[in-house]
Amino acid sequence: MKSQSWTRYKIKDSEKGPVVWEAKRLRVASTRTESPNATGQAVSAVVIG
What is the pTM of this model? Predict the structure, then answer.
């Protein structure tokens, strides 16, 4: 994830100015059989910094 740059998202305008979040996206897959998504399919996760 170090090589991936942060993507900025404008969430809303507040009284103090725009609220901006920075996020990175990654793909994860569950390997636990008791997981609700036990198919092993990859899902997206968002890391907010």
Answer: 0.51
List of E strands, the chain? 7-14, 17-29, 42-48
d(CA 21, CA 19): 7
Residue predicted with more confidence, 11 or 46 = 11
Backbone angles phi and psi of 31, in degrees to 5: -110, 0
- Reduced to 3 states (helix: H, G, I; strand: E, B; else coil), residue 12 is strand
Query: For residues 6 and 49, is the Cβ–Cβ distance under 8 A?
Result: yes
Distance CA 25, CA 12 (A): 21
2 sits in which H/E element: none
The whole-number pLDDT of residue 23 equals 85
